[in-house]
Design goal:
Length: about 475
C-alpha cells in the first residue's frame, strides 16, 4: 500500500492547514508531525486518545498518529464524563494528545498527557508510514443510539480507498482549497475534511464556528470547495436570497458538498436559485466511510446521493435479507455495502461485528430506493424512519421534504407511532415559521397528499420550538417523544 500522506514529503511551502489566523505549510506540518510521531513511536503506545478540538493541534496530532502508525481515538470535547469514561475504558489508550492550553476533564485523569506542539521546533527526521493497509489508523466511536457507543476500527486501506474514490468523483486535486467548520471528532470533519485535502496535496481552511460570513470570506479569497451539514446549508439557504454578496461567494465555489444527513429539497432549490450552484450530496457512515456520491458534471437530483463510489458494491434487501432487483425509484429496502471502504470491526465486540454483516455485506440500517439508472435515494433509518402504515412502507424523509416546501414550516421531522387501526400512524413534528400563526394539521396533511400520496399524509401534527439535533446536524428522533 502507498503512503496515506505523500504530499508531506513533496508539498514544500505550499499552504496545508489554516485555522483562523494560524497556518502551516507542508514543510512546517511535516516537521511538527514528524517530531510528535517520533515521540509516539518511542512511547511504545498501542493506542492514543486525541482531544479533538477544532484547532491546528488536533490536525497535527491526527497526522502524527497516521505517520507513526499508532491508532488514535478522537474524543468529542462536548461529551460528558460518563461517555468519555466509557470510551477510555473501552479503548484503553496509553496517552492523550492535546493542545498545551486545553483543560481536560476528570475522565481523562488516568492518562499520560502529551502536549501537541503545532508550531514545531524546526526540521525533524522523517518518519516512514506503515505499509500494511489492514493496520488500524483510528477508532471512531458511534453515537450509541442503541446502547453504549461502539468503537469502529478504521484501517488505513479504508482511508485511502474512500479519499481516492472521492477524488475521482469530485475531480479533487492539489489545486483545491477546502473550507469548512465541521467538528474534528468524526469522519466528516476529520477524515474527509483534514486528511482528504492533505492526501491530495491541497489546503484546508477551517473557520472555527460556522457562519455564512466566515465561509463566504474564504470562498471570496480563493477557497474552491465547501463541506457542510444540512444545518449549515439551511442557514445559507435562509440568507442567500437576500444577500447578494453571499450569493456571489457561493457561486464562486467549484463544489458545495453536504453530508451526514439528508439536505431538504427546499434548501437545494433556494441555494441553486440564488447562486447558480447545486449542492452535491454524498452518503456514508462511520463504519463504511463513504459509499455513494453525485459526481462532478452530473446533474444533481435533490434527495439523491448519487451512485456507488469506485470499489463500493451496494445492494438493497427486503426484510428477509433477499436482494431486491426492482430499480423503480419506489421499492424500499435496506442498504447493504461491501468494499475496501469498510471498517475492520467493532473494538472488543466480536458479537456486534458478526451481527453487523450478512455474508460479507455490511448492514447499514439505512433504507433507500434506487432509480432505474442506479441512483440511490435514501428515505431514512430502518429503526426510526421506516413507517409501516396501512400496509404501506413509508420513508419519513420524503414526507419531511414535502413539509419543508410549505411556507409555514421552518423545520420538520416525521416519525411513526403505534396505531390500533393503521399499525403505525405518521406524526409530523413542526417548527413553524411564525409561532403565532402556525399552519393547521389539516392544511399540512392536504399539502403532503397533493405532493406525494394520500396514505403518506401526517395523521397527527405537533408544534415544537425546535428539533433536537446532534453535533453533525442529525435530528435525534428518539428524543422527540419527550419534546414539549
Amino acid at each position: 500500500m502507498t503512503t496515506l500522506l505523500p504530499a508531506l514529503r513533496t508539498g514544500g511551502t505550499r499552504p496545508a492547514l489554516r485555522f483562523g489566523e494560524r497556518a502551516l505549510d507542508y514543510d512546517a506540518l511535516a516537521a511538527a508531525a514528524d517530531a510528535l510521531a517520533t515521540r509516539l513511536r518511542e512511547s511504545g503506545a498501542d493506542r492514543v486518545a486525541l482531544w479533538a478540538t477544532p484547532t491546528l493541534e488536533t490536525a497535527v496530532g491526527a497526522v502524527a498518529a497516521v505517520l507513526a502508525g499508532v491508532p488514535f481515538v478522537p474524543l468529542n470535547p462536548r461529551s460528558g464524563d460518563r461517555e468519555l469514561g466509557h470510551v477510555v475504558a473501552d479503548s484503553v489508550p496509553t496517552l492523550v494528545l492535546a493542545a498545551p492550553d486545553d483543560q481536560l476533564p476528570a475522565a481523562l485523569d488516568g492518562l499520560t498527557r502529551v502536549a501537541i506542539d503545532a508550531e514545531g521546533s524546526g526540521p525533524a527526521p522523517a518518519v516512514a508510514e506503515p505499509e500494511d493497509g489492514e493496520a488500524p489508523a483510528l477508532v471512531v466511536y458511534t453515537s450509541g443510539t442503541t446502547g453504549p457507543p461502539k468503537g469502529a476500527v478504521i484501517p488505513r486501506r479504508a482511508l485511502a480507498g474512500t479519499l481516492d474514490a472521492l477524488a475521482e468523483a469530485w475531480a479533487w486535486t492539489e489545486d483545491d482549497v477546502l473550507v469548512h467548520a465541521l467538528p474534528l471528532f468524526h469522519v466528516h470533519g476529520l477524515v474527509l475534511g483534514v486528511l482528504g485535502p492533505l492526501r491530495r496535496g491541497g489546503a484546508l481552511r477551517h473557520v472555527g464556528r460556522f457562519s455564512p460570513e466566515a465561509v463566504a470570506a474564504e470562498l471570496r479569497s480563493g477557497a474552491t470547495m465547501m463541506f457542510g451539514v444540512p444545518t449549515m446549508y439551511h442557514r445559507l439557504a435562509e440568507t442567500v436570497g437576500t444577500d447578494p454578496e453571499l450569493a456571489a461567494a457561493l457561486g464562486r465555489a467549484r463544489l458545495l458538498v453536504s453530508g451526514s444527513a439528508a439536505l431538504a429539497r427546499h434548501d437545494h432549490e433556494r441555494i441553486t436559485a440564488a447562486t447558480g450552484r447545486q449542492v452535491v450530496e454524498r452518503y456514508g457512515m462511520t463504519e463504511t466511510l463513504m459509499n455513494t456520491s453525485v459526481r462532478v458534471g452530473a446533474e444533481p437530483r435533490p434527495g439523491s446521493v448519487g451512485l456507488p463510489l469506485a470499489g463500493v458494491e451496494l445492494r438493497l434487501v427486503d426484510e428477509d435479507g433477499k436482494e431486491l432487483d426492482a430499480w423503480d425509484g419506489e421499492t424500499i429496502g435496506e442498504i447493504q455495502v461491501r468494499g475496501p471502504n469498510l471498517f475492520s470491526g467493532y473494538l472488543n465486540r466480536p458479537d456486534a461485528t458478526a451481527a453487523a454483516f450478512d455474508d460479507g455485506w455490511f448492514r447499514t440500517g439505512d433504507m433507500a430506493a434506487r432509480d432505474p439508472d442506479g441512483w440511490v435515494r435514501i428515505v431514512g433509518r430502518k429503526s426510526t424512519d421506516l413507517i409501516k402504515s396501512g400496509g404501506y412502507k413509508i420513508g419519513a424523509g420524503e414526507i419531511e421534504n414535502a413539509l419543508l416546501e410549505h411556507g409555514g414550516v421552518r423545520d420538520a421531522a416525521v416519525t411513526g407511532e403505534p396505531d390500533p387501526d393503521l399499525g403505525e400512524r405518521v406524526v409530523a413534528w413542526i417548527v413553524p415559521t411564525d409561532p403565532q400563526r402556525p399552519p393547521t394539521a389539516e392544511e399540512l396533511a392536504a399539502h403532503v397528499a397533493e405532493r406525494l400520496a394520500p396514505h403518506k399524509r401526517p395523521r397527527e401534527v405537533r408544534m415544537v420550538a425546535e428539533l433536537p439535533r446532534n453535533d453533525m446536524g442529525k435530528i435525534l428522533k428518539r428524543r422527540l417523544g419527550t419534546a414539549p
